Amino acid sequence: MADLSTLPEFEAKGLLFLADPHFSAIPPGQRQEGYPRQVLDKVDAGLREAQRRDLVPVFLGDMFHWPRENPNSLLVTLISFFGHWSQCYRKPWVLVGNHDKYQARFTSDVSLAVLDAAGVINLMQEQGPQFILRCQGRTVLLGASPDFTPIPESFERGNEDQVIWVTHHNLGFPDFLDKPLRIKDIPGVDWVVNGHIHRPQPTQIKGQTRWVNPGGLVRMQFTRFNLNRKPVAAIWTPECTDELERFELPVAPFAEIFPDQELPEGAESLKDRESQFVQGLKRLASRRTREGLGLKQFLEQNLETESPESELIWQLYEEVIHGRQGS
Predict the structure, then answer these.
(1) Are the C-beta atoms of residues 128 and 107 closer than 8 Å to each other?
(2) What is the phi/psi pair of residue 256, to 5°?
(3) Measured by CB atoms within 10 angstroms of the end CB, which terminus of the chain is less buried, N or C?
(4) Are 47 and 92 in contact (CB under 8 A)?
(5) Intra-chain end-to-end CA distance of the chain, in Å
(6) Contact 171, 183 (CB under 8 A)
């Protein structure tokens, strides 16, 4: 059994989860101008609801869209914003996602590390138990598996009434059965709340464990699926049994945040998703995107981080880069 005696403890009425803000000064993909303010408004609305209901705010990874070299103006804005919330309510807990790391590593030069150094967030960088929540007479443990760290096979409980685990992984929810990690019963864990997969998924119940994927805060892709999607925060309270409560966040009309052009036809098939990696490499070879997306960033965004093939590709990438530097 893990030693939980040194974990921080809080009293609150529940937890509020916010997934994948993807803060960026430059609108990513096909998003139009106004993106940073729109994301900030969503996060602000979530934190206001957390304050109103006395909930601990927890971010499920990918605070930033680009891991580093974000402009100082964005960092100053976020330090001020989260600093305000840390003083007037609670300092949020933030899981490390794949977009928060540079070349698949979390280092001191990434933007999320700046927020941590500024003391305006509680960083969840290591796998394992994070804090104890005293909630309406119940003892709740929150654990975490940041990007590229294992999700426990089981958890040996002590006096905890509930164990909730937050993750940032490619999980096999119904729309993503090709993903490498299987959804299964985790003895000792009551809830797994996942970020990373932007498309909301129905809650899956496997034995004792309920798996939740609330979906990203922002609509990143110009698709029919996002046409009417309303991003939400997910809320856990002791009253939750088989589902987490959803809290709708501010959402701008689709036509205001994406270009005025025809939407692509049809739903994305499994075959389409499997071929996107190759298609993306072809586009990368022929042109650069407006964000200056390079090979490194492309690999960070598209590799299945849990697969052995990904590790091999990263090794080859490092060898190529090292070879060029040495020539």
Answers:
(1) no
(2) -90, -20
(3) C
(4) yes
(5) 52
(6) yes
Q: How far is CA 226 from CA 7, 197, 218, 253, 263, in A?
A: 39, 14, 9, 11, 10
DSSP letters of 165-213? EEE-S-B--GGGTTSSBPP---TT--EEEE-S--S-EEEEEETTEEEEE
Read off the tokens for 304: 């299945």
pLDDT tens for each residue of 25-80: 999 989 999 999 999 999 999 999 999 999 999 999 999 999 999 999 999 999 99
Q: Residue 123 carries which DSSP code?
A: E
**Measured distance CA(168)–CA(319) in Å, rounded:** 28
Kindly give the residue spans of alpha helices, DSSP state H, lying in the chain.
35-53, 72-88, 111-117, 254-257, 270-286, 295-302, 308-326
pTM, 2 dp:
0.83
Nearest to 113 by CA among 141, 84, 79, 87: 79
Name 131's bridge partners: 142
Calpha distance 163→189 (Å, rounded): 5
Alpha carbons 30 and 325: distance in angstroms, whole number:
34
